[in-house]
Amino acid sequence: MSHNCDDQVAQLSLIPLTPTPGLSLTGAAACGSSSCMVLAAFTLKVSVISKLCKYHKMTNLGITEGCKLGSCHTVEDILGEGGFGLVAKCRNTQTKKTVAVKVNKGEEGVFQQAIEEIAILKQLRRLNPDTCNIVQWDGFFFDKERICLTFELLDQSLHQYLQEQNQYGLPMGELRPVLHQLATALSYVHSINIIHADLKPVNIMVVDRHQHPVRVKVIDFGLACPVSEAQQGMRLGTLWYRAPEMSLGVPLSQAFDMWALGLVMAELAMGCQLYPGRTDYDVLRFIVETQGQPSDDVLDHGLYTPKFFINSLDEIEKHMEQHPDRFMFVIRRPILSRPATRWMDADVSMASVDGSSVAQKHERTDRFMDTVLLLKKITKKTRQIVLLKKEHKRRIYRLKTYIIVGQAKASLNRQALSCFLEASTETI
C-alpha cells in the first residue's frame, strides 16, 4: 500500500457514484432502487477514504506517517494536534533516537509564538529536567517555513492516564507524589522568574505509566512568559484552569500557576473538572458560589471587573430600568449550604481511596482538601509554593461593594437592594 494518503484519496475520487457491475450490496441497497444503490456505493467510498486517512493519520499540515521533517527526522506517528500545529513521534536518522517533535504552523502569529517559546526553553536549560520535573528540550530545526521543536519522548499525558484509571480519580497514595513533583516543577520554574500560564492535565506528561510511583513532567511552555514581561489584561491559559484574577484583568503573577495546580489536583482526586464552563462568566460564577467573591482589592484593580460585577446601587437600578427583561443578578449561597449536582461531595469523590477505615479516609480527604484550598485561596497573595500543614478556619466574607452579574431574574426595589447589600456575613 502506498504511503501517500493524498494520492490514494485522489485516486478514490475517480470511483463512480454508481455501483460497479458485480458489486455485492446488502442492507438498504438490496431494495433494488437506483437511489439505494448510489447511496451504498457512496457510503463505501467514504468508508474507504476514512479508513485510509485514519491509517495514515493525515493532518491539516499534510504531515503523515513515513514523511520526513527537516533533514533527518522521519515521522512514525502523530501524537496529537492543536491550534499551534501538531506533535509527532519521530526517528532521528542520524542519532537513531526516537523523539517528540512539535511542528508549529507557518502562520505569522504561531511563528512568533514559537520564537518566544524557544526563548523560554533556553532559560529552562539552566534547570535539570529530571530533578526539576520538566520536559527535556533538545533544540529546534526548520521544515520549510515551519519551526520544529525537539523534545524527549514521554509516555502519555496525565489526562490520558486519568481516563485509563476510573471515574473516581486517583487514590491518595498516587496523588501525593504527583502533587509533590508538580509543586517541585513550579518551584524551579518560578525560581527563574517564569510563569507557565497553562498548567493542566494535558500539559503534564507521565514518564512511564507502568512505573510506580508514577513520575510526571510539565510540558508545553508555549504560553509561558517572564514575570517582567507579563502585562495586565493578558488572558492566557485554558478557561477551566484560569485563576479568577486573570479573568478580571488583574496584573499577572506566578500565583496563577498555583491556582491551576489546585484545580489539577482536585480533578485528579474527583475524576472530573472542578469548574467547567463555556465562558469566563460561567467559571467565575462557579468560583464565587464555592469560595465567595474575590476581595474588593482584587476587584478594584481588575481591568475587566465591570464586565462581571456592578459596584453601586445606582448602577443596579439603572440597569434594571434600561433592561428589565434582561437584567439579572444573584449572589448564590456557597455550595456547602446549597448542594448542587455540579460539584461532587468530598466523601463521594474520595471513594476510591484504598481500603483503609472510614476515619482514615476522612482524615486523608481533609488533609488533601486543606492542600487544595491553600493552593486555590481566593486572594492571590496568600497562595504559596511551600505546602505547609496548617489549620484552615471557616472563611468568612461579607458582601461589601460589589455584586456579581448573574443568571437569575430579580425584581428588587431600592430598599430591598439596600438590605441585601448590608446583609450579614455568610460562611463557606
Taking all Cα atoms into account, the compactness measure Rg is: 27 Å
The name of the CATH superfamily of the largest domain reads: Transferase(Phosphotransferase) domain 1
Strand content: 15-25%
Number of strands: 16
Organism: Amphiprion percula
Family: Belongs to the protein kinase superfamily.
Keywords: ATP-binding, Kinase, Nucleotide-binding, Serine/threonine-protein kinase, Transferase
Domain Protein kinase: 73-365
Can you lay out the helices and strands and say which pair or pack?
Elements: H1 5-12, H2 34-56, E1 68-69, E2 73-81, E3 85-92, E4 98-104, H3 108-124, E5 137-143, E6 146-152, E7 156-157, H4 158-164, H5 172-191, E8 194-195, E9 204-206, E10 216-218, E11 225-226, H6 244-248, H7 255-270, H8 280-291, H9 296-300, H10 305-308, E12 309-310, H11 313-322, E13 328-329, H12 346-349, H13 358-375, E14 396-397, E15 403-409, H14 414-421, E16 426-427
Antiparallel strand pairs: 1-2, 2-3, 3-4, 4-6, 5-6, 7-9, 8-11, 9-10, 12-15, 13-15, 14-16
Helix pairs in contact: 1-2, 5-7, 7-13
Keywords: ATP-binding, Kinase, Nucleotide-binding, Serine/threonine-protein kinase, Transferase
Domain Protein kinase: 73-365
Protein name: Protein kinase domain-containing protein
